[in-house]
Amino acid sequence: MNDELRELYQQVILDHNKSPRNFRVIEHANHHSEGYNPLCGDRIDVFIDVEEGIVKDISFQGSGCAISKASASLMSSTVKGKTVDEAEKLFEKFHSLITGKADGDPEELGKLAVFAGVRDFPARVKCASLAWHTMINALKKEKDVVTTE
User: Which of 87, 69, 90, 64 is CA-nearest to residue 22?
Assistant: First the structure.
């Protein structure tokens, strides 16, 4: 990854950390899950309103590092309006990207490609994936708290 692209990616992550999108509670969400990363203390709640198999609204609240919050912000922006199946497939692609198992061009994931460099820092993979695992848990209506350990 060249230096200009790395700088752009850092700016996107910092922007989403400073001004996270969908950082709120959906009062009448029909899906909800909690996530916790005991290694660094990141905590997140994901709220989803699914109607007829479509993610009509998605939001999150919690506290965490810049990567965790930026990932939740970009995740919620990307998943909103998608079908549940599309959201699950995005999770798989994103997880493959950040763990270094991705085949193909990371740019296919649009803005989510900013997290491609996370794979070089194994401890940060958990930060980037917490919101995504929590979203999947919420979609499946699992009651257990998601943990990255």
Answer: 69
Residue appearing with tokens 């930060």: 127
Burial class (CB in 10 A: 0-12, 13-18, 19+), 2: exposed
- One of 3.30.470.30, 3.40.50.670, 3.40.50.2000, 3.90.1010.10 is the CATH number of 3-141, namely 3.90.1010.10
CA dist 88 → 28, 39, 101 (Å): 22, 25, 17
Which residue shows structure tokens 């497939």? 89
Query: For 92-131, how does the pLDDT look when each residue is reduced to its tens digit (9 = 90+)?
Result: 999 999 998 876 667 778 889 889 888 888 889 999 999 9
pLDDT in tens, 120-143: 888 899 999 999 999 999 999 998
